[in-house]
Design brief:
By secondary structure, the protein is mainly alpha-helical. The chain has helices at 3-7, 9-76, 82-93, 105-114.
């Protein structure tokens, strides 16, 4: 402790409190900046994911339209009936052992490569 601090302890204490307050404000500012950066990053990521989901929904809609058009033409040309298609879909749905009206791309690839 120096002579100044010994003679004027309140001034010394006030200086210490000011320095502590400055340090706390700097820490809060740094934290706020980091939080804002995290929020902006999250917003950008959320927006990018939304754009990807929108694009996939568009692709799925187009794929469904294409498949429906192909099936309609096959039926129109007499290549397949709806009953035959339903029976085929039921058979393919049971390939993975789960009757859920879905099939994975892995099974489709295997089916296409097996020559069936």
């Amino acid at each position: 402790m120096g002579l100044f601090e010994w003679i004027f302890p309140q001034v010394s204490q006030a200086d210490s409190l000011k320095a502590l307050h400055k340090a706390q404000l700097a820490a809060i500012k740094d934290q706020s900046t980091a939080e804002r950066h995290a929020e902006i990053t999250m917003d950008v990521t959320t927006q990018a994911l939304k754009m990807r989901i929108d694009a996939m929904e568009d692709d799925l809609g187009f794929a469904l339209l294409l498949i429906t058009g192909i099936l309609a033409k096959l039926e129109e040309n007499g290549n397949i009936t709806r009953e035959e298609l339903r029976a085929e879909l039921e058979e393919l749905d049971s390939v993975d052992g789960v009757k859920d009206s879905k099939i994975t791309s892995k099974i489709v690839r295997f089916y296409l490569n097996s020559g069936s």
